[in-house]
Amino acid sequence: METQITEISEDGCYVALTHKHLQVQQAMDRVRSPQAGAIVLFAGTTRDNFAGKPVKELQYSAYTPMALRTMLSICKDILARHGLKSIAMIHRLGTVPIGEESILIAVSAPHRQAAWRAGEEALEDCKKRVEVWKREEFEGEEGVWRANRDGLPGQKITNQDADH
After folding, report:
1. Cα–Cα distance between 156 and 13 in angstroms, integer?
2. Which of 11, 144, 19 has its CA nearest to residue 88?
3. What is the rounded CA–CA span in Å between residue 108 and residue 84?
4. Facing residues of 108 across strands?
5. Which of 162, 145, 134 is nearest to 62 (CA)?
6. What is the 3-state secondary structure (H, E, C) of 129-164?
């Protein structure tokens, strides 16, 4: 059986998908540069509610080969557009309990303004384009698949739907 690639490092860009706990310091160290005057880090965490309903946990799945290519494309574009020194985008897969990180985005740039803008843009592009899907598991009821975007509901899939 061929081992699946879960990370790519190329031209100042690092992208990864992992089932392990995300490491903030490792993400920052990946983008550290003596030419950078700023490192901006975004850490997305699982919150305990969605639209007033108690969330038990999130589950993420991905089409890994395509997701990595999309992540790398986003990072290369943002690196060039904002004059970054480096960018890292790491997304966790599997179960992510309340309070734990599901995504880390770290960017380094000569100046803070470019780093701030690039970090936010990287996150928004990741949510819009990367082939990662999120299932919210609620306390006391069935979970719901959602697009990996803020507040966009997916459709509940029942056994009857799966039969058709």
Report:
1. 36
2. 11
3. 6
4. 39, 86
5. 134
6. HCCEEEEEEECCCCCEEEECCCCCECCCCCHHHHHC
What pLDDT sits at residue 146?
82
pLDDT score of 51: 86
Q: What is the mean pLDDT of each run of 10 residues along the chain (164 residues)?
A: 78 97 97 98 95 93 96 98 98 97 98 97 96 92 78 46 42
pTM of the shown model = 0.88
HSE-up (13 A, CA, CB side) for residue 159: 0
CA 164 to CA 156: how far, in whole Å? 14
Nearest to 41 by CA among 88, 99, 91: 88
Q: What CA–CA distance (Å, rounded) separates 108 from 39?
A: 4
CB proximity list for 53: less than 8 A, separation 6 or greater = 138, 139, 141
**74 vs 13: CA distance, rounded Å:** 10
**What DSSP designation does 79 have?**
H
